[in-house]
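Q: What does the assembled structure look like for these inputs?
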Amino acid sequence: MPVDGIFGTTIDLLGKNIDLRTKNQNLISSNIANAETPNYTPKALEFEQELQDAVKNRSKGTPAITNPRHLPLKGAAGRLQSVTGQVVETPSKTPGNDGNAVELENEMGRLLENQIMFNASVQMLSKKFGDLSMAIKGGN
Amino acid sequence: MELKGIGSDLGLGAAFPEVSGTKSTSAVEGAGKFFSELVSKVNDMQMQSDQAIQGLATGENKNLHEVMISMEKASISFQFLAQVRNKAVEAYQEVMRMQV
Amino acid sequence: MDFFSSMNISSSALTAERTRMNLISSNLANASATRTPEGGPYKRKDAVFSATPLESRFGRALDSAAGQQTRQVEVTEIVEDQNPPRMQYDPSHPDANAQGYVAMPNVNVVEEMADMISASRSYEANVTAVQAAKSMALKTLEIGK
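A:
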C-alpha cells in the first residue's frame, strides 16, 4: 500500500504508546480502587523495554498476527504491533495487617506520570499529523 | 553609534552562516547548493526530533522539554523551507510572465 | 481501548467508600446506645471489601492479559463485630444488670475516627483517578485538531 509509507515508525510507536498507557491506566485505577481491600496486591504494566527492543530490532520472537484477517506488516511496524506489555505485581514492602499491599502514594505518582506521558504522546501525534498535512498542502 | 543596515548581522545573515561564504561559483550553482544544504539540514532536524520522540516513548530519555523543543524546531524549519520554496517559485513565475 | 472501564472501576470504589462512611457514621452515632430492636447493646458494624473482576460488556474473550487483571471493588457483606460489649459500672442506669454493670456498645471512638480519615483519603484518591481518566479521554479527542 503506497500511502502507508508517508507515516513513519514514529507515528506507529506513538500510537502503540497511547494504547499501552490506556491499559496501564485501567490497572492503576484498579489498584487505587482496591487500596483498602484485604489481600490485594497491586499490579502494573511493563512495556517500555519491549517497545525499545521492537524499535531497535532486538526482539527475539517473530511478530504474531492476532487476527487472521490482519495484513502482515513488514519491519518495525510488524514488531510494534506485537508488543503487548507484561503485567507485573508490585507489592509494597510493608503490607498492612489485612494483607493489603497497595501504597497509595506510589499509585498516585504512577497515575500522574501515566497521564502526563499520555498527554505528551497525544500532543506529539497530533503535531506530526499537522506537519504532514501542512507539507501536503504545500507550506500554508 | 554606528547605524547598521538591515541584513548585516540580523536574523537572515545568521540563518545561513555557511552558505553566505560561497561567492565564487555562478548564481545558479550557488542557489542550487543553498537549497540542497537547506533541505539536508531540515532533514537532519526531522531525524533528530524523531529520535528524541522514540527515546521518550521507550523510556530511555526522560527529558520532555528537549523533545518538545526539538519537535518545534523541526516543524518551524520545515515551514521555513516550504516558504522559501514558494517564494522562489513565485519569483520564477513572475520572471516568466515578463513580456519580451 | 476504553476509558470507561477505568471510570467504572473508580466509581465502584467511590460507592464502596461511601458505604463504609455510612457504617462509620452509624457506629459513631450509636456509640452509647444500650438498646436495639434485636435486644442488647448496639454492635459495631464493618464492611468487607473484596476485589471482583469487571463484567465486560463485550465478553471477556476480547480482553488482553492486562484487561483481565483489572479488578473493581465491592462491599460483599456487612458484618457485625463479635467482640464482647464493654461493661461499665453504673447501678443507677435503667439497663444495669444484677451486678450494676451496663453493657455498652463495643465501639471505640478513636478507631472509628481513624477509619473515617482513611476512608475519606481513599475517596479523594479515587476522585483524582476519575479526573485523570476523564482528562485523558478528552485529550484523545484532540488528535487531528
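The helical segments of chain A are 9-33, 48-56, 75-81, 104-137.
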